[in-house]
Amino acid sequence: QQQVKQSPQSLIVQKGGISIINCAYENTAFDYFPWYQQFPGKGPALLIAIRPDVSEKKEGRFTISFNKSAKQFSLHIMDSQPGDSATYFCAAIVSGNTPLVFGKGTRLSVIA
Amino acid sequence: GAVVSQHPSWVICKSGTSVKIECRSLDFQATTMFWYRQFPKQSLMLMATSNEGSKATYEQGVEKDKFLINHASLTLSTLTVTSAHPEDSSFYICSAETRGHSNQPQHFGDGTRLSIL
User: Fold this and answer.
1) Cα–chain-centroid distance for residue A107?
2) Region class of A40: left (phi > 0), else alpha (psi between -120 and 50), else beta
3) A34 touches chain B (CB under 8 A)
4) Which of A95, A98, A104, B74 has its CA 20 to 30 A from that of B30?
5) b/e burial code for range B51-73 (CB count within 10 A of at least 16 → b)
């Protein structure tokens, strides 16, 4: 599997602050880049996703920034809330019957 | 739409027994399903790709005889952990390829926590 590198491994943010998680990939054939949110004991749930023809996508407090030339993408969580405390995984996929390639995850803790 | 149901959500059994986990696509047909294993505080690790009507494709290092995968219909894939031992204790997650049924390529089940005593 091609690797997707994710950082940081863990992140502590104050309530109301901005959480930023970064990912980098190698395979230029990837054409879909989702972010998943996972709570303990649950499967990952899609948070937001982007395709490489767009440089930014915003949905509510969540924004993906995508830099195709640098092969990097990031998740920004604005006005972070304690309920956002979870593990976040970036992923990438080549469309078709192929599996997602996951980053190693970032444990986010939002403290009041 | 595009709901994936996984059953059971939690199972505890004795060492040496076999455990079957089901993954169902409830409102769509999935020709391809994926099985992942996740250890605490780690990422999802792909175990195998399951295609309806054919043998599963296993990732390197995953024992085919240990983790039996059956995808007999377009809505059901099963993972059987045979002769389970404590080191098989983990969180097992399936996903189903949605192929046009959703705006995302795969939907995940809620996982099965397997504890082997």
Assistant:
1) 11
2) beta
3) yes
4) A104
5) bbeeebbbeeebeeeebbbebee
DSSP 3-state of A9: coil
Higher pLDDT, A46 or A97: A46
The shortest C-alpha distance from B49 to chain A (Å) reads 8
Both tokens assigned to A14:
């104050």
The verdict on whether omega for the bond into residue B40 sits within 30 degrees of 0, i.e. cis, is no
For β-strands A72-77 and A86-92, DSSP reports them as unpaired
- By C-alpha distance, which of A86, A44, A24 is closest to B46? A44
- Residue A71: what pLDDT? 96
Residue B15: strand pairing partners:
none
Which residues, at least 6 apart from B82, have a Cβ–Cβ distance to it below 8 Å? B18, B65, B66, B67, B68
Q: Does A78 touch chain B (CB under 8 A)?
A: no
Which pLDDT value is given to residue A2?
56
Residue by residue, DSSP assigns B9-37 as SEEEE-TT--EEEEEEESSS--SEEEEEE
The two three-digit tokens of residue A30, written as one number: 């990837």
* pLDDT score of B102 more than 90: no
